Amino acid sequence: MAYKRLITIFFVGFLHVAFGQPNCIIKTRYLNDGLTVKYIQPVTIDSNSEETCGMGIEMASVSNYITLQFTSSVAPKQLQGDLIIIFSDKSEMRLPQALINLSRVNGKQVTLYTFYILDKFTNQIITKPVETITYQLLSGEQKSVSIKSDFSFLLKNGLLCLNPLL
After folding, report:
1. Taking the CB of residue 144, how many other CB atoms lie within 10 A of it?
2. Distance (Å, whole) CA 128 – CA 147
3. Cα torsion 134, 137, 143, 146: sign
4. Are 145 and 133 in contact (CB under 8 A)?
5. CB atoms inside a 10 Å sphere around CB 126
6. Closest by alpha carbon to 66, among 76, 56, 79?
7. What's the rounded mean pLDDT across residues 82-104?
8. Measured between alpha carbons, how far is 70 from 68 in angstroms, rounded to an integer?
9. pLDDT at 2 > cutoff 70
10. Residue 157's pLDDT is what?
């Protein structure tokens, strides 16, 4: 009897470790058109005296997105073009811009840029640590942000939280 209980506890523990996903807090946003968006709150990846840049992940229906959220006390951040993600092995991918959302929160300007993760890129995000992200400002200037090693698997963990079947 004790052996059965011990084996059951071991088996459940093994399944939890083998198939468990990273701990995460999933939030939900309901849009006016009836679409439900599940997302992981953006994590600050760059900050200065004027603005903060956060990176997060979203899932709407079966599509996945990377978000860049800029919070500032000045004019909204204006980006153009693709988001370029460079991995630790120096390979890169370009994600097309999908949506821009402007709002004001507590007197600050919040600009949320959403970039579509093409299905062919999902495996790269899950298997490779992110080293740098690059985006282009409307003025033409390119901005690169080095991702701290603590956040190199931020996108992977977010994708696995939102869709554990990946």
Report:
1. 11
2. 13
3. negative
4. yes
5. 14
6. 56
7. 92
8. 7
9. no
10. 92
Q: Which residues of 40-64 are buried (b: 16+ CB within 10 A; e: fewer)?
A: bebeebbeeeebbbbbbbbbbeeeb
Q: Which two tokens stand for residue 111?
A: 């600009």
How many CB atoms lie under 10 A from the CB of residue 113?
A: 21
With contact defined as beta carbons under 8 Å apart, do 51 and 77 qualify?
yes
Exposed, middle or buried: residue 109 (CB in 10 Å: 0-12, 13-18, 19+)? middle
Q: What is the pLDDT of residue 152?
A: 84
pLDDT, residue 18, reads: 42
Q: Tell me, what amino acid is at 139?
A: S
- Judge residue 67's burial from the number of C-beta atoms within 10 Å of its C-beta, 0-12 exposed, 13-18 middle, 19 or more buried: buried
Rounded to 5, what percent of the chain is helix, strand, coil? 25, 50, 25
pLDDT at residue 9 greater than cutoff 80? no
User: For the chain, give me the number of helices (H) and strands (E)?
Assistant: 3, 10
Rounded mean pLDDT of 42-61? 92
Q: Which residue has tokens 């300007």? A: 109
> What band does 7 get if pLDDT is binned at 50, 70 and 90?
low
